[in-house]
């Protein structure tokens, strides 16, 4: 039973991410999401207490996708350069694979709303911030190690980290799949951006 609930939960999240991305985080309604699922609003409210809770869950999932992909490729036996490049490639591939979630994060950020109104909203915002910072710390540790070893230029660590992550997240700003897209295009983009990110460090 728990697996069925989990599958339904993720199916709702996927549908919500696509609706929020397509219609906008302020415009997409629970009705829109239910319609895209071919189900009732009751199914959604069984898992999520409100539209805001559903949007928060979509935003929370974005750094979880990338963390689950990137953390396993980190290897203490590799140099900071090798580690960073592997992490960057994996990060970009994960972003392409779960693009609607990341576009929702971008939409919410650029059209940022006021302070969260309820305690549950504030708790969700705290969880999202913690997940984001926890994921950023993976890259922070590798960049810091490279600066300490002399492999990377010594620069302001926070500025370097956030600037490089903006570069690695560049497809969120401009990419949309096309029917005539060349085979291997996203892999080529991932390699180019990973190379550019590494070049900014050395």
Automatic annotation (TrEMBL):
Residues 29-48 bind DNA. Pfam families: TetR_C_24, TetR_N. One of its GO terms (molecular function) is DNA-binding transcription factor activity. SUPFAM superfamilies: Homeodomain-like, Tetracyclin repressor-like, C-terminal domain. Residues 6-66 form the HTH tetR-type domain. The keyword Transcription regulation applies. Keywords: DNA-binding, Transcription, Transcription regulation. The keyword Transcription applies. Gene3D superfamilies: Homeodomain-like, Tetracycline Repressor, domain 2. PANTHER family: HTH-TYPE TRANSCRIPTIONAL REGULATOR BETI (PTHR30055:SF234), HTH-TYPE TRANSCRIPTIONAL REGULATOR RUTR (PTHR30055). This is TetR/AcrR family transcriptional regulator. The lineage of its organism: Bacteria, Pseudomonadati, Pseudomonadota, Alphaproteobacteria, Rhodobacterales.
